[in-house]
Design goal:
Helices cover 68% and strands 0% of the residues. The longest helix is centred in the middle third of the chain and has 31 residues, at 26-56. The protein has two helices and no strands.
């Protein structure tokens, strides 16, 4: 999903929430917001876990020196 597409969808969700706030009674709207916030919280937890994994994941290129060393690194 492109960044512009995601931004457009966020705007659509917020616009629909504003319409729902006007159309629904406060208790129903509160329940709706509560369920949305729960989903957003789960998404943020997942994003934080993925960021933490990426931070501590070993790099694929590694930092191990290959043996035998090339001749230029082995003075005789």
């Amino acid at each position: 999903m492109s960044r512009n597409s995601a931004d457009e969808q966020i705007v659509m969700v917020l616009t629909d929430l504003m319409r729902a706030r006007l159309a629904l009674d406060p208790q129903t709207f509160g329940a709706l917001i509560g369920s949305i916030l729960t989903e957003v919280d789960l998404g943020m937890q997942l994003a934080e876990e993925l960021a933490m994994e990426a931070k501590f994941r070993r790099r694929s290129e590694g930092n191990v020196v290959a043996f035998p060393l090339p001749e230029q690194h082995c003075p005789r």
